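Q: What does the assembly look like in three dimensions?
Context provided by user:
Components: four
Sequences:
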Amino acid sequence: MSVKIADVIIIGSGIVGSSAAYYCRKKGLSVIVLEAEIIGHGGSSRNGGGVRQSGRDARELPLAMYAVKHIWPNLKEELGVDPEYMQKGYLVCGYNEEHKRGIENRIKVAAAAGIEMTLLQGKDIQEVNPYVSEHVTCAGWTPSDGSANPLTATLGFYKRARELGAQYYTHEVVVKLQIVRGSVKRVLTEKGNVYEGSQIIVAAGYEGRNIIKTVGLDVPVYPRLVDVIITEAAAPMFDHMIGGMSGFYGHQTNHGSFVFGNSTGREQTLGCYADKLYSTAYNPAFICNTVGVDIPALKPLKIIRTWSGWIDMCTDGVPVIGEVKDLPGVILDIGSTGHGFCPGPAVGQTLAEIANGEETSVDISKLAYERFDYATKSKKYYA
Amino acid sequence: MRKLDDRNIDLGEIIPELDDHIIICRCEEITKGEIREAVHMGMFTMTEVKRLLRPGMGLCQGQTCSRYVRNIIAKELGVSPLEIEDNVARPPMRPIELQVFGNEVESE
Amino acid sequence: MRIESHPIIDDFKKGKKVAFTYNGKELEGYEDEPIAATLKAAGIEIHRYTRKNHEPRGIYCAIGRCTDCVMVVDGVPNIRTCMTPLKGGMVIETQYGLGAKGAES
Amino acid sequence: MKRYHVIVIGAGPAGLSAAIEAASHGMTVGLFDENARPGGQLFKQIHKFFGSKEHKAKIRGFRIGEELLAEAEKLGVEVHLNSTVMGIYFPMNKITVSNGESTTSYSGNNIILAAGASENAIPFDGWTLPGVMGAGAAQTLMNLHGVQPGKRILMVGSGNVGLVVGFQLIQSGCQLEAIIDAAPKIGGYGVHAAKVARTGVPFLLSHTIVRAEGTESVTGAVIAQVDEYFQPIPGTERHLDVDTILIATGLTPMSKLAEMTGCDMKEMGGKVPVVDQYGMTSIEGLYAAGDVSGIEEASSAMIGGRIAALAAAAKDGYIEQNEFEKSYSDYQSSLEKLRKGMFAKENRGKTLAVTDEGLPISTNLLKHGFLDEEEITSYPGMTSRQGIHPVIECTQNIPCNPCQDACKFGCIQVGADITRLPIADVKSECKNCGMCVAACPGQAIFLVEEDCGDHMAAVTLPYEFRPLPEVGEKGYGLSRRGEEICPATVLNVRLNPVFDHTAILTIQVPKEMAMRARFYRGSRKD
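A: Here is the predicted structure of the complete assembly.
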């Protein structure tokens, strides 16, 4: 059977896979993207759309900040599709002392990276958002955070990469990687097709773990199901991203509908496997109540859709991004742990830079694969 | 390989048709022409067209327009509508207020 | 127009007559019949104007599925009038985009 | 969480029948429907049903609905109205139901999905204007709520829905301007078309709607002839002065709830759950019955509901295997009877030239909605002889035999196979009781006395319009095409309760009109 060859084979067509394809094409690298389902089937189309630097682990903050500073603002012109990026701030609401301490800790991490985030209490909260109820006693406010539309952002990168000549194949389920003379060169799919590239980028979310296992690699990720509710369109109320220390997150989209996600944690007991993305019966009611308490004005709003998605949770809270030191040819992005959308385009650009043999614009040393080699060594990366 | 899985087929330029202006998705006011254009941008399934342009994301959740969106995509790609992957059905079946969805009452 | 005497159906089992307001005008209808039927009987065709093209919309499926017949009822927008029983004193307004006149975005 | 032995979703013909069948075997049943009144399409169907006695033939749809509802409540079925099933969640067999105030969850050992179907449309220029609606929507307004959908109406689509709703528009006092269909022939039963054609409504086949006129609501329609690819032929456009456009171009199963469970689906006029012969989907305990599992009509939906509930009862041990097999084969044979004849699924799309009896199928009926006068002598129901006798203008094989049961004097035979054309038995003597005229669901039976002296004849016909003409009134006899072809005098008007609102009208017409006049119109007052 014929072998399709390209400089870079990318597994996964989400925000990272498709932005990597886009940046590779701009660097003149030929690209083939293999997608197991349809474009952006995974987490990239199943998240709350937060473009958020606050509340992040320091190790992945550089990627998020780079994306907010250099990529998100000019994507609309670059892609010819509006990702609906809005830098209108992020308000995280708490209602007890523990939440307040949590917010203060986030402010410290943000300040260390030069991001302005302030603690709001009492009436100051309603100053930022009059719809937030008195139940919220403390809040963190980060003006430079914001939101975007994950659907049009992901499909925008796909559309532009395709226009620039990236080859896309859907329903191509990768089952095996192959090492040729010491480096990962080949990709085999369920249908028996073979693809060959000098660099293989694995950006397939949780499924990536099964793929890299075939060449003796592993990253400690586990799947976590989260549900989201979508409301009818309503007249504009507030345009900043909002979240709760009780776990809910979301925003009002350009279209006027609200997106809110949360999870009771019970989903893991369902025994559903990754491809059975059924909405659970528990979560929607839980999300409604957590959101309803903090933003009572949303209570009469009608919900028109619920969906769910799997998060690839990494045990230490941040993804593995980059090459594997002693196994050339494979470049990883796995374990975004539910906050991969904002840094996504920056990750894509970084993977493209690596594929092109360039110095990466963003320091990703803290997210190296090797951090899991030795338990004792990983402590250093934790510091 | 299934024709629709090769996203690199060249669909050529869009030739305007007389009824491109007709509204197909009544809730989100999406026209036939806009749907055809999305196909030419590489959106080969209902879900991709929906996520890019919103037909089927309105109040009725595609129960009125899905059939026609599917036919338009199929015609643009030169395949039978049966080959076009449909949208996925999700609860709730009808619009339901947040306070009602959250107001769980025991069934006696 | 209401059907005065139907050849097959002797009694449409109507509730008691109730008054309600439609865009400020006082009208009458039968309690618990769908609002859409009351308005159609009163010769009112237009339920709303759409958000993007400001086009008029009215009854289309009458079984609660297509959501074209939505109006602002007692201040709440996007109410499916073909599935919502009429009650005395209801305030029914034509919907403009996402809300009542003046409130539209 | 309350657990029922059987949860039924949708209280239409299939759902009500399933609930009754399950309860009759001692199972606890929760029946859920999002409407304020149950019955689904049954309560909008005011025409008399086809089929045979076991299918409740000659009974009006909404009366069947009332019967089923009473039977369900008598058997202890818990009917939850205004209760919208928001979602089905497997593997816990759980449904969440909203009554507009709160949501409650129920679970069921078995879930029978009977959500029915909704209407298709054909997007055309102006189809979003107020005044353009589904034919079923108009039927709901007229028959459920007693409100006319409009004044001057165009019907797009000549399947049974277009024909039946078209007739009901006239009954509601609306002016039906025309029935058009892009297909070259009428899609529904010939008898349904004939009842509309004889009132003067034109059928325009191979025509489609080009656009709806008007800015605030419909003020007119433009139709045009189509070529064999159903594309409008330039230059054949025609304006119709209408204020309402009804669309009757088929139905699509409302199978979203089934899809949600992840059971196997397939394509059959829209996505439907794959079911075995008992209606069970690929998920044990989840059944689908009625239009949601494939478009047919209410009669077969009722049997489908029974079969699904029967299978659930057998699965959970409420009936023995032999009793189950016996009941199943009875229901299956009853269903098979309905799935025969010219409009059966296996004949869909075929152009049949002759009836089962080898008689030519009237092309005029298919093209214009009425029998051509030369054709009428070639059918067994349409004989000519002395004295009053039934003339049965039923010329297509459809599964239906109430006329045979209605005549106590043996004047009409259909025989064991209910899809055979009814035969007027020349030996038996008609007593002019009018029972057959009232019983015929297609209103296709007339009693004709071809010569009652001084060059006059008497034609007795079914009349379901109001106001009723008075005896002695002078008016016009209308041909099968609805043209005034002769003067007519009303001899008799009978409205006996046993006729169930079908008045039996006898008019006197000139002798030569005995086999041509088939309708009556009073002299116009305007």
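Follow-up: The helical segments of chain C are 35-41.
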